[in-house]
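Q: My collaborator sent me two sequences in one message, no labels, and asked for predicted structures for both. Can we handle them in order? The first one she listed is below.
A: Yes, handling them in the order given. First sequence, followed by its structure tokens:
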Amino acid sequence: MKKRHTPAAAAPSRKNSKRPGAPPGSLVYTGHRRQDEVTLQLVQYTGDAMQTVADTDAAALLGRLDASRVNWIALSGLHETGVIETIGSRFSIDPLVLEDILHAGHMPKLEEHATYLFLTLKMLTRNEDGAIEQEQISMLLGEWWLVTFQEKDSRVFDVIRDFLSSGTGRLRKRRADYLFYRLLDTVVDHYFVILDGMEDTLTRIEEAVLEQNGATISGEILAARKDMLALRRAVLPLHESMRLLAQRDLPLITEGTWGFFDDVRDHLAHLGQTIEHTREMITSLMELHMTLNANRMNAVMKTLTVFAAVFMPLTFLAGIYGMNFEVMPELGWRWGYPLALGSMAVIAVGMLIYMRRRKWL
């Protein structure tokens, strides 16, 4: 079982948006500022050695690049567009790609360029309140370098850093494309964590629906539906984008790494099928909940109808004998009042027996 890390919830901040009519390639961060300062970390490694350097100066950090090693630049915080522009200039990144990196609401996709691959996707985690948090993650893969862009220092890739530090496994012995695969696989693994939690929630909701207890079931079903849609929007476009890797003619992906990307595509296909099943299950739960509520309402209306039907003739008799006339049958008779009450009781019991035999009760 792979080690997983869940980031802490970040405080929301003001959200920017691209000005309508701005030229293509305009660098405007459209998400929330999730941390105060942009952090940069450079991890360089070979099969025998590894070093990590942190620096707030992007130009100084880029000056340390070494083409004889694998260079992983991890950037956290996208609100300072000048840092993004500096990195883009160093690796000759298309301004439209930089614009996509800063577009926090961009759908997942994979693009091939002359000297690099570009991947953007969604990282999903649950905060302390159980709500799903989305984080935009983008990756640029070159021959000997990899740059990751995150909206916050979520520590989601710490497990990869631990493997690099320990020197165990094949990670330090492979090229940057294998590191690219491991980071992608880590994000996909978190999708399974979200899906497992969603299935547990739906099982609990189903039990509550069948037991007909819980006044907030409708809200819980709608929240589960919202979580499912968030997962669906993250997985399905990514699965479609990964079809590009199935062509097996990308020079930046070595022959020994193809099988690992096939495994990621299989995981995404499995997630897609499970998501559709979960979607149908949520719809069924909502329909079942509405049906049970309708049945309970029908039972209440049936009970009220029975009472109304029974008391209708009694009200009729009481109304007649409540009229203020001096001359009325049995008005001065000693047994008139008991006779009226007895007649009402006989009529009520008789109607109940009749409804019982007709199976209306």
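Q: And the one she listed second?
A: Here it is, processed independently of the first:
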Amino acid sequence: MKKLSALFSIIFLLLLAATTSAATLTDTSDSTTNTAQEAAALVYISGYDVSPDVFYPGETGTVTIHVTNAADTSVLVTQPNLIEPNFKVVNQGAFATATSIGPGQTHDYHFVVTAGGTDGTYFPLFTTSTTVYGANAIHSQITIKIDSTDIRASIALKPDTFSLSTKDRVNVSVVNPRSGDITNVLIVPEVDGATISPDESFVGTLKAGTSVQVPFAITPKKETSVTFHVTFNNGDNKHSTQVVLPLNIGTNKEEAEIIVNNIESSSSGTTLTLKGDVTNNGLTDARSVLVTVESPATPINPNPVYAIGNLEPDDFSSFEVTYAMTGTGNVPVVVEYKDEDGNVFTEKFSISTSGNTAVSGSGSAQSSAMPNGESGGSPPGMKGLGSGINQLPVTQIAIILVVIIALLVAWRKGLLKPLTDKFRKKPEKDDDLEEQ
């Protein structure tokens, strides 16, 4: 009987121990589960990046989602997805396995997407989950824009007309009206029949809603056109546009215009001297102005070439050129000058004189050349008009002045008094006759 009682006691103790152990295991399991769920709840979406900033319709780009684990233990994250019917995820198969995110670490999910929608703003849903049973899913909406607006290229600065072999400045304007930045902006001109500097211009990044003007120097060799190719990147996608500039050849309305007037010619032995004024009647400076003569006249010392220097618009300067000439005929006067870019212009004026000993003030001038020495006519009355002072009757005016001065001198010396007295006495005699 005592043995049976002892057996029952042993069995009771074993059952009590088993029950206590099971209860302890259950409490440990519940504690572990609660800890894992708490850790899973500390995983969150810390941000995202979209490239390009704004998609063109049909363009492919990248959406990067940043998932951060703020817990003090690692968490397994699985099944990430980006849900938006207007954006197709190209690399969905890259996320088939779970990812372990360590304590305090961030993992980036890179989705390659293609924009299939029209212009507008879209809000794709990013979602993922942990491997912890009973933990909530992790999800957030992001923003992606689609815009078909293209950049604009135009010619912002150009002359009305271009001149052959003359350098002119042209500004190409690039405008980014989009709400996202564009990068690697490059402008490359293409032309046949002109030289352009620089060969290309790299702008780099053009911010949203901004513009830039890029200068080019163009020297035409013939009438042609220039095509400016503008390429740029939107994200990793390359785009291009272009603008065409016709190079119409004509007279530059803003260039310097040279006039020669107030011509005087004199001689001393075999040396002839030509004097006059050079005026800049244009809208830009005439630089490094030189005056000389050419065949059949021969420039000689002391002033074979007269250097004037710079002439601003509406400015003038006198010149004096010495030369020798056999026979009679017009004297070709040559005026050479440069513009701000160093282009050389030559103007020719034909001075008419009477023999080798021309009378002072008897000359006239008219332009007979184009820039860089190319022959061409000038409209009558536009250049080289003689001074109006030379047309006045100088001799008659001088005689009148001499007579007036002589009368004044005679009056002051009293030489005219007998004459004036004679006229004064006549009225007295008339008064005597009336008294009688």
